[in-house]
Specification:
The complex is a heterodimer of chains A (about 750) and B (about 325).
Chain A (H helix, E strand, L loop, with lengths): L5 E2 L2 E2 L12 H6 L14 E7 L5 E7 L1 H4 L4 E5 L20 E2 L5 E7 L2 H8 L3 E6 L6 H4 L18 E5 L2 H7 L2 E9 L11 E7 L2 E6 L4 H12 L6 E4 L15 H13 L3 E4 L2 H6 L6 E10 L5 E13 L11 H4 L5 E10 L13 H19 L3 H8 L6 E2 L9 E4 L3 H12 L15 E12 L6 E7 L5 E5 L8 H13 L6 E5 L16 H24 L11 E4 L2 E4 L2 E7 H8 L3 E7 L7 E3 L1 E12 L5 E11 L6 H20 L17 H4 L12 E6 L21 H13 L10 H9 L5
Parallel strand pairs in A: 3-14, 12-13, 16-17, 19-28, 22-23, 30-31
Antiparallel strand pairs in A: 1-2, 3-7, 4-6, 4-8, 5-7, 9-17, 10-15, 11-12, 11-14, 15-16, 18-19, 20-29, 21-22, 21-27, 24-25, 25-26, 29-30
Helix pairs in contact in A: 10-18, 13-14, 16-18
Chain B lengths: L5 E3 L4 H6 L8 E4 L5 H6 L7 E4 L9 E3 L3 E5 L4 H6 L1 H6 L1 H8 L4 H6 L2 H6 L5 H4 L38 H7 L3 E5 L4 E5 H4 L18 E8 L5 E8 L10 E10 L2 E10 L6 E2 L1 H7 L6 H11 L12 H14 L3
Parallel strand pairs in B: 1-3, 2-3
Antiparallel strand pairs in B: 4-5, 5-8, 6-7, 6-8, 9-10, 10-11, 11-12
The chains are: A alpha+beta (about 750), B alpha+beta (about 325).
């Protein structure tokens, strides 16, 4: 797998190596200050009163008793909340109507937690209950309870049409029709939501556990109608986000509202239960698929209809990804997505957004039809995948007006299959006769990355040390390290001299944030540009001491500037900086990645061997290979961590973790780690998971790198379902694969 | 967040018992608190006073007695797991105690607390106004009942969550109970009550009584025992189904068998039919399978927990086979 670690300019010294996170020691020793660690003298504690009903109008609300409690400094309801929606959502911070059980109804701030808790119980609310609906298909039926005046459907159905699907299905030699279901699933991080708000006149400083400080900034400037310069959002260390913190949430607004009213700093920290209930969960999907193939093993028509359960409000629009359109060639494709509001808690983007759910459907149905046709499921995929030069859509409308470049899905499949020894799989599914049956499955996936605006600043100090400043965040994915490595490579200054400031809207230029495979390709390119701007200034400043050599003839290595042709002539960066007497700064900004017809995507193939205990329904992962195209890895250790972590997060969706709701009351029954059942460290042994970094080089990212965070989370559900089928001959089309589902399926008469 | 409460830490059992009241709920006994404090934080329980028995010397530790072991109710689960006498004389209990929760919970939780813990039903834990909370319905019966009872259900369908309870019933243990002035001993299989007997409670303790000790007879010579627990996760989970099995084989045939199930009934559920299926037979694949089948005879699954029937059948069979 060794990759020639050079670029056009010469060999790479930093990029492509292994190494620990530069903030690892801070994080594990507790020196890193997370939002919950922020403590300001006089700071108040906030508490949220939440609706016990899934859908109701507030008929009356009385806060007078709470306000009378000594130590309570501010109480707020919809009556005094700004009538401005949270950015990217249809939700007000507080409203006279609640649409899910657990929605904020009133908030207060008091001098300590005990006082706040006591006062919260004194708020009385009279609800006028409204009928509610939890299922997205039910919510679209005539007579269903309505959440919004314009109905439960968010906007128009999202449609994409290529060719003529009905005609394509008619022309197909074989058509199968299937239904796949993924429930609402929680994806939060170790650190529950937290924020601290402090006003100084009309200036707000908000510390928040967010992935996107500038999105929060935008939401708050709009809500309080103040200039951009008046709001500073700081998100230095974040204990995991996984997309749930990629957009503004009500908590930031609530803390800022209370702090403004109380004229004192306010801290609002969610409990684990609040975090599960009022987070942005992974949305439920109900996907109906029709797939048609020709006898020559080619895909001919794919028809996908999806119901997306957005929950009460949406946080950014969630939906499927591009698995239906971008992985395989098919002359006829149609996708229709209904994004539906129901009375379950908010959903939003979480690792992969709708891609894991869509991958589950597409990669399952691909498997199903291959097996029905007697084809090797891997050969069938290899026959149909899009390869370099194949037409691919640039935009969301589906017209294939672009050309795929830097793709390596075929290499991912080949590397994974070789490592798994794909030929070991059962030629006939379900043929193992013992109690414990082993089987092997495959699933492929793809995604784009790097969308939107990004920016960064690099500053070289008078002693030659370097500051990297950016307003996207390090949510544990290692961006402080990766971004520093990019600047270190450009500047020739060792990593040990680097210091980063992450997630600060006042210190760094605009950046959309850390989500959607974009930090490396967005912020990373901005850092590279900023570092190059610094490099030019340093070389220009060094030139006079090196016989006025042209900057292009100079290079920096280990903080020493040399004349390339005559390395004996050299000067230290620190000496040049001292003489210059002014620090050097560079800014970088990037917008859209792709402007021409070339389309670069990131792909991966997963292979899993499972052992199904046919008597107990337990599924063990025996071996798991995650082969990914990451372009050029900037830090190999970090890339492997991302692949392993994402793989496990994808596997978590198979075992038994899901959010469950009571149909009669709309209550979430799984509001704790005991009932939600996220996997523990003992559930998926990292030793059986192997990350393969497939050699490749991207065309747009810094040093050929590609964004990766989302993809490893996509294929787990499909790969495991396909492996369970190979082992047992039973097909699971509903996630998670509980004992109940497996034992029920095993007890049913088998189709032959 | 929990209400204010008073807290006392009496030095003796008598003092502690004297502080208890005449009705359940107002005054609560606390030892490790791993269940009770969670209940209080979730507003499931709101006692006005907590009486800690954690530091009372008489309730601590494992001691040898004439017939076996006397285990103080406030003995930590972790100490029971590691105790050499427990491992030697009643290994079934050590195995079961080792399956409770997590190391953190075993380091705080006590054997008495493990036996007296409240149900894990998600309707109960989410404060639905069910039988257990004084209401007149069981929400699981027609609701989300994946984890509920397949035996002895109704009117409530909770399952007893304890791991040590099935082991202690299988071992023929006895509970020592004290009200300070009055002591009584109750066989472990009479300690627990079904919802039909008392829908609000899971055991016979009166409001003014404390579970003080468990007396565990030494396992019969030549007996072998095992505790098997099936969970969704590998750890930090309650049983979907568990089995405590102890079998004595003499001259190649089963002379004594105790099979008690956890996680499938509102009490630890001894399956006499499964035991009968083994008696007088050699312990082998055929007899273990017959016992597994007998163990689920009479199971009455709800809409979503039918899987517990084949699961229980398999787990009983395997537990027995592991002893062969």
């Amino acid at each position: 797998m060794a990759q020639q670690n050079t670029i056009a300019g010469g060999p790479l010294n930093v990029v492509g190596k292994r190494g620990p996170n530069i903030d690892a020691v801070e994080r594990v020793t507790g020196r890193a200050k997370y939002t919950g660690d922020i403590d300001i003298p006089g700071m108040l504690v906030a508490r949220v009163l939440r609706s016990p009903r899934p859908h109701a109008r507030i008929a009356a609300i009385d806060t007078s008793k709470a306000e009378a409690v000594t130590g309570v400094r501010a109480v707020m309801t919809y009556k005094d909340a700004p009538k401005v929606m949270i950015w990217g959502s249809r939700q007000y911070a507080l409203n006279d109507r609640v649409r899910f059980k657990g929605e904020a109804v009133a908030i207060l701030a008091a001098v300590d937690a005990e006082t706040a808790d006591r006062a919260l119980k004194l708020i009385t609310v009279e609800y006028e209950p409204l009928p509610f609906v939890l299922d997205p298909e039910e919510a679209l039926k005539p007579g269903a309870p309505q959440l919004f005046p314009d109905g439960n459907l968010e906007g128009q159905p999202r449609m994409l049409n290529r060719g003529d699907v009905e005609q394509g299905l008619k022309e197909s030699d074989k058509v199968i029709e299937r239904f796949y279901h993924c429930p609402t699933m929680w994806s939060g991080g170790m650190e529950p939501r937290a924020c601290v708000a402090q006003w100084d006149g009309d200036h707000l400083t908000l510390w928040a556990s967010t992935q996107a400080p500038f999105r929060v900034h935008g939401s708050l400037t709009a809500m309080f109608n103040v200039p951009d310069a008046n709001v500073r959002v700081i998100s230095s260390y974040v204990g995991g986000g996984f997309g749930t913190k990629s957009a503004p949430h009500t908590d930031e607004a609530l803390a800022a509202m209370l702090a403004r009213k109380a004229r004192l700093p306010v801290k609002l920290q969610y409990t684990r239960e609040e975090e599960i209930l009022d987070s942005n969960t992974r949305f439920e999907t109900k996907i109906y698929v029709r797939l048609g193939v020709k006898k020559d093993m080619t895909l001919h028509a794919l028809d996908v209809k999806a119901y997306i359960n957005q929950g009460a409000y949406h946080t950014r629009l969630g939906g499927l990804g591009n698995q239906s359109t971008h992985v395989y060639k098919s002359p006829h494709v149609r996708t229709v997505q209904y994004r539906v509001h129901t009375n379950i808690p908010n959903t939003g983007p979480t690792r992969g957004v709708g891609d894991p759910q869509e991958t589950f459907a597409i990669e399952s149905v691909m498997d199903e039809i291959a097996i029905e046709m007697g084809w090797d499921p891997m050969e069938f995929r290899l026959k149909n995948i899009k390869r370099n030069g194949d037409p691919i859509a640039r935009g969301a409308v589906g017209t294939e007006d672009g050309r795929l470049v830097a793709q390596a899905l075929d290499k991912c499949i080949e590397a994974g299959a070789s490592r798994m020894q794909w030929n070991r799989r059962n030629a006939v599914a379900g043929s193992p006769t013992g109690t414990k049956a082993r089987g092997i499955g495959i699933a492929c996936t793809e995604r784009g990355g790097g969308a939107g605006l990004a920016g960064a600043s690099v500053r070289v100090n008078l002693d030659g040390s370097v500051h990297v400043l950016f307003a996207s965040t390090d949510i544990g994915q290692g961006s402080r390290t990766t971004l520093s490595m990019i600047a270190s490579e450009v500047l020739g200054i060792p990593l040990s001299l680097f210091r980063t400031t992450a997630g600060d809207t006042e210190m760094a230029p605009y950046d959309g944030g850390s989500y959607g495979n974009r930090t490396l390709q967005g912020t990373g390119r901005a850092v590279e540009a900023a570092a190059r701007a610094c490099l030019q200034q340093i070389l220009a400043a060094a030139s006079p001491t090196l016989n006025n050599a042209a900057p292009a003839d100079l290079e920096i290595r280990d903080s020493i500037i040399r004349v390339k042709a005559d390395p004996a002539r050299q000067v230290k960066v620190a000496d040049v900086m001292q003489r210059r007497g002014r620090s050097v700064t560079g800014d970088g900004a990037t917008a859209a990645l792709q402007t021409g017809v070339d389309v670069e995507r990131t792909s991966g193939a997963h292979f899993v061997e499972v052992e199904v205990d046919k008597e107990t329904g337990k599924v063990h992962i025996i071996k798991y290979i995650s082969a990914h195209d990451v372009g050029r890895p900037i830090n190999v250790t970090i890339v492997e961590n991302q692949i392993e972590g994402g793989t496990i997060q994808g596997l978590a969706l198979t075992q038994g973790e899901e959010m469950r709701f009571d149909e009669r009351t709309g209550a979430c029954l799984t509001g704790s780690f005991v009932d939600l059942k996220p996997p523990t460290a003992l559930d998926f042994d990292p030793r059986v998971i192997e990350a393969i970094i497939v050699p490749n080089e991207g065309t747009t990212g810094p040093f050929g790198g590609k964004g990766l965070g989302e993809n490893p989370c996509h294929p787990g559900m499909a790969a495991v379902a396909n492996a369970i089928y190979n082992a047992t001959g039973v097909r699971l089309r509903e996630v998670p694969f509980t004992r109940a589902k497996i034992l029920r399926a095993l007890s049913e008469p088998r189709r032959t | 967040m929990m209400d204010n409460f008073s807290y006392s830490r009496p030095a003796t059992l008598k003092e502690a018992a004297n502080q208890l009241g005449k009705e359940h709920g107002k005054i609560a006994v606390i030892a490790g608190g791993t269940d009770l404090l969670g209940e209080m934080k979730d507003n499931l329980a709101a006692p006005e006073r907590l009486v800690s028995i954690r530091h009372i010397a008489d309730l601590q530790g494992v001691r040898a007695s004439a017939s076996g072991l006397r285990i103080g109710a406030a003995t930590l689960l972790a100490d029971i797991v590691e105790n050499p006498m427990v491992q030697e004389r009643t290994p079934l209990l050590a195995m079961a105690a080792g399956k409770v929760g997590t190391p953190q919970i075993r380091n705080m939780g006590t054997i008495g607390g493990n036996l007296c813990q409240r149900p894990r039903c998600w309707y109960y834990r989410n404060n639905f106004p069910c039988y257990k909370h004084g209401g007149n319905t069981c929400f699981s019966a027609a609701g989300e009942n994946d984890f509920h009872a397949i035996f002895l259900g109704g009117p409530s369908y909770i399952v007893h969550p304890s791991d040590t309870a099935p082991a202690l019933v299988a071992l023929g243990a006895t509970a020592r109970i004290s009200s300070g002035s009055r002591e009584r001993t109750v066989p472990m299989d009479k300690f627990f009550v079904t919802p039909r007997e008392d829908v609000r409670r899971e055991n016979i303790l009166l409001p003014n009584e404390v579970l003080t000790a468990i007396e565990v007879p030494t396992a019969p010579a030549g007996s072998k025992a095992v505790y098997v627990k099936e969970m969704v996760r590998e750890t930090w989970d309650f049983a979907l189904c568990s089995v405590a099995a102890m079998v004595t084989v003499k001259d190649g045939i089963v002379a004594d068998a105790r099979i008690v199930l956890g996680g499938v009934a509102p009490i630890p559920y001894r399956v006499a039919k499964a035991e009968a299926a083994l008696m007088g037979k050699p312990l082998n694949e055929a007899s273990a399978a017959a016992a597994g089948l007998a163990a689920v005879d009479g199971a009455r699954p709800l809409a979503k927990n039918g899987y517990k029937v084949p699961l229980t059948q398999a787990v009983v069979k395997r537990a027995l086979l592991s002893l062969a």
